[in-house]
Automatic annotation (TrEMBL):
Protein name: Helix-turn-helix domain-containing protein
SUPFAM superfamilies: Putative DNA-binding domain (SSF46955)
GO molecular function: DNA binding
InterPro entries: DNA-bd_dom_put_sf, HTH_17, SinI_DNA-bd
Pfam families: HTH_17
Top-level taxonomic group: Bacteria
Residue ranges of every copy of the Helix-turn-helix domain listed in the record: 14-56
Amino acid sequence: MIRREIGSNLDMISADEAARILRVSARTVRRLCIDRKIPAVKVGNQWRIDRTELMRTLGRDSRMSCWLGMDGK
């Protein structure tokens, strides 16, 4: 994950919000976070995902986009 300056304008979302965007379960998102398949940081007992980095990751990793059903097919 890319380090950023404190106070930068991040669009952080929860695992539940990421699950809705990706159309998978929150459990799947948490597993992807643990496996470092998507960029995330754990705050307490919750995962926070940078929405912009998530979309960049999906754009770079065509296998993941295909696996998530986001390849347009």
